[in-house]
Specification:
OB fold (Dihydrolipoamide Acetyltransferase, E2P), elongated, 9 helices, five-stranded mixed beta barrel, alpha+beta, 23% helix, 17 strands
Length: 380
């Protein structure tokens, strides 16, 4: 099931509200002792998250299909106490080397948050209403938690399933039918790195690939330095603007990109920004990045992954960029700031000809108070 964006949380009878997680959407298939993890688009996840297999076997019924989200709770070593989700650490978990997969499974273990039940035993639940599927999910997880606690009492061990040890575990997603509680979560849970709130109709069946859910996300604006651009994949215009913000020491940090321009606007931007490409490398704050990219493009260059190079998620994608003189400021929308960068894409609103690039600092941004992952998943 997919979600369509809304500016307001829908109200009225028949809605179920849940936090919107910032992780990897994942479908879990269990058949006896076999667990398979897959993305919504059927990309296999099982090998990347070996630490989840034991907890899922302990937490789920013998035969079931569960929809949920893989997340990585922040560790104190990386981000300090009281922090929520660490999406950067989650991205690092997708790696081809088995040794690295095993090491990261121990260093930054993932958790699974379950929010829907698609099949139970031989029963296909796709046509059932959400309230039926949700009740069955709650009952199934509770029953297996009780069974595990009984086994733990008998042999002195502790299971790693629902609520396990808090680091590698399976959780039931918090939910409410109270719109006021959902509004509170929308504000409070941002500090845990969550995206917003999802609203689902309790009477709806499960509809794969259809936008029947409603998502309400955080959207703010920021004035950013435009330090460069990337050419669109068709080679005919500006595909994205590279955005920067200054820290207290005056260092310009790359915080994200603004994209999704129309074909006409991409061509206009290419002509509009062309004068700013002249002598752009002179004293450019990201000059070293650009020089790395130029060196990487030379024949015989090493395969080291530099800033602006390709990624595991976008194999073959050209992330080279064109530097601009530091003269332009753009107002953009953004949803969330994490690790000093905007999560997800930003939308260009307009140029701020009244702003000096030197005034575009992090200080302008509102930062949510930190909230721990545990305080979110243990809400009832």
């Amino acid at each position: 099931m997919l979600a369509k964006l809304s500016d307001e949380i829908p109200v009225g009878d028949g809605w179920l509200y849940e936090p919107k997680w910032d992780g990897f959407r994942c479908i879990v298939f269990r058949d006896g002792d076999t667990i398979e993890l897959a993305s919504r688009n059927e990309r296999p996840f099982t090998r990347y998250f070996p630490e989840l297999l034991g907890p899922l076997l302990a937490a789920l019924p013998q035969q079931c299909v569960v929809d949920g989200e893989i997340v990585v709770p922040a560790t104190s070593a990386r981000r300090g106490e009281g922090q929520g989700l660490d999406f950067d650490a989650l991205l690092q978990r997708i790696h081809p080397a088995e040794s690295r997969v095993r090491r990261l499974a121990a260093e930054t273990p993932a958790s699974f948050v379950a929010f829907d039940l698609l099949a139970l035993g031989d029963r296909n639940l796709l046509a059932e209403a959400l309230h039926v599927r949700h009740d069955l999910l709650v009952q199934a997880l509770a029953a297996h938690a009780a069974d595990r606690e009984g086994a733990d009492d008998r042999d002195g061990s502790r299971g790693g399933g629902v609520d396990g040890d808090g680091s590698t575990a399976v959780y039931l997603c918090p939910s409410t039918t109270d719109a006021q509680v959902a509004r509170q979560w929308f504000t409070e849970f941002e500090g845990a790195g969550l995206d917003g709130v999802i609203a689902k109709r309790l009477a709806d069946p499960y509809t794969p690939d259809k936008r029947t859910l409603v998502k309400v996300k955080h959207r703010r604006t920021a004035d950013c330095v435009v330090a460069g651009y990337r050419v669109h994949k068709d080679g005919k215009g500006v595909g994205s603007l590279l955005l920067g913000l200054l820290d207290q020491e005056g260092t310009l940090h790359h915080v994200g990109v603004a994209a999704s321009f129309t074909a006409k606007r991409r061509t206009e931007l290419l002509a509009e920004l062309e004068p700013l490409t002249h002598d752009a490398m002179t004293n450019h704050p990201w000059r070293e990045w650009a020089e790395w990219q130029q060196a990487a493009d030379q024949p015989g260059a090493s395969g080291q992954r530099m800033p602006g190079a390709g990624s595991r998620w976008n194999a073959g994608k050209d992330l080279g960029w064109v530097p601009l003189r530091i003269e332009r400021v753009a107002e953009v929308t953004f949803g969330q700031l994490q690790e000093g960068r905007f999560r997800h894409g930003s939308q260009f609103l307009h140029w701020r000809t009244d702003r000096d690039p030197a005034s575009c600092t992090y200080d302008q941004l509102e930062v949510a108070a930190p909230v721990s992952f545990a305080s979110v998943v243990h809400r009832s």
